[in-house]
Structure of Proteasome-activating nucleotidase:
Amino acid sequence: MSRSPSLPDRPHRDIDPELPDDERLEALRGHFEDIVDVNDQLEDQLDDAEERRKRLREKVDRVERENESLKSSSLYIATVEDIMDNDEVVVKQHGNNQEVLTDVSPRIAEEVEPGDRVAVNDSFAIQTILNAETDARAQSMEITEKPAVGYEDIGGIDEQVREVREAVEQPLTDPEIFDEVGIEPPSGVLLYGPPGTGKTMLAKAVANKTDATFIKMAGSELVRKFIGEGSRLVRDLFEMAREREPAIIFIDEIDAIATTRSESKTSGDAEVQRTMMQLLSEMDGFEARGEIRIIAATNRFDMLDRAILRPGRFDRLIEVPEPDRDGREQILEIHTRGMNVNDAVDFADLADDTTGYSGAEIESLATEAGMFAIRNEREEITHQDFVDAIEKIEDDDSSEVVASAGYFYQ
Ligand SMILES: Nc1ncnc2c1ncn2[C@@H]1O[C@H](COP(=O)(O)OP(=O)(O)OP(=O)(O)O)[C@@H](O)[C@H]1O
C-alpha cells in the first residue's frame, strides 16, 4: 500500500531587525521564495492526492458493480404457492415450473404471502419480495379469474357478439367441431372501432362464458413504461397464459406496438419493432385449437402494420362501431337496470337525443342523471334528470373544446 508523502517543512528564517534595509529586503525576498517553493510542493502533493482519490473511487465503483452483478446473477424469480409452519414455503420457479419447499429469511418471513413474486437464490431461499415497482408483470397485466361481465351486459352490438362467440368461444368449448369440419379456427381476433364501444367488455364476456382466465395487457404500456422490456413482457404474457389455461389474452391498443413503420429509425422504433416481432413469433408458435385465445383491440385501424393481419395472425377482423339509435336505447336500459328509475322515463326519446354517444358515454350519462336526483334530494330518477344530464355533458364537452382551442392558439 502506498503511504502518503510527508509534508514539506515550514519555511523559517530569522531576520535581524537591526540589519540595514537593503539586506533585510534581500532576506525577506529569500523567505518569500521559500514560501512559494513550499506552496508548489504542497500543490503537487494535492494533485497527487486527487489523482489517487480518483483511482480509488474507480476501484470502489468497479467492486460495487461486480458485487451487484454477483448478487443479481444468482437470483431467480419464483411465485409463492403455499406457506407452511416453521417459516417454510413452497415456491414455483418461473421458466421451468419446478416446485420446491424452501426457507424464507426471518427478516421477511412475516410479509410473504401466497401469490407473491419473489427472488430466490441458488439454494432457493427467498431473498426479497418483488414489490409492485419491480414487478413489471403485475403492473402491466390485469389478470381476472372470472370477469364479472356477461353477454347480457353488452348492448347494441349483437352481430359482433355473435362473431366473437364463433371465433373465440367456440374453439374453446367445441374444438372437435373444427376437427370434424377440418378447418382451423381463427388464430387471433382483432376488434376495431372508436373508444368506449365495448371491445374490452366483449373479450371479458367470452372469458366469463368459457371459464377462461382473462389476461389483459395494454400495448402502450409495453412500449412506454418498460422501455427495453417489451419483448420480455410479451414472452411473460404468453407464459402466464400457458400457466393458467384456458386463457384469453387481450391486448388493448395493439396499434402501440404494431404501427406502420415510420421513416425514422430511432432506437425507440427498433424497440417497438422487436416487441411486435416477439408477439408474432409467439402467435406463430401456438396451437390454433389450443386452450389459449388471443384478442386484440385498436381505435386506430388505419395505422396498423398489415403484417399483423396475415393468415395465422390476427386473421379475423371485427368492427365494433358506435351504437345506433336502438343500440343506445339498449345500453341505456342495461346501465339503468340497477337504478331506481321512474316509469315515465322514455329511453327511446333519450336515445334520439344522444346521437354520437359511445357505450361508455351512455354509462356516464346514467350516473350523471343519478347525481341530479341526489342533488335534488330524490331517490327516484326522472326523465328530466336524464335531460339535464345530457345538457351538462354537452356543456362540459363544449367547454373542453374551447379550452383545448385556447391551448392550441396560445
Ligand atoms: N356496447 C356496450 N354495452 C354496454 N355498455 C357499454 C358498451 N360499450 C361500452 N360500455 C360501457 O363503457 C365501458 C367501457 O367500455 P369498454 O372498455 O369495453 O370499451 P372499449 O371499446 O374497450 O374502449 P377503449 O377502446 O377505450 O379501450 C364499459 O365498462 C361499459 O360500462
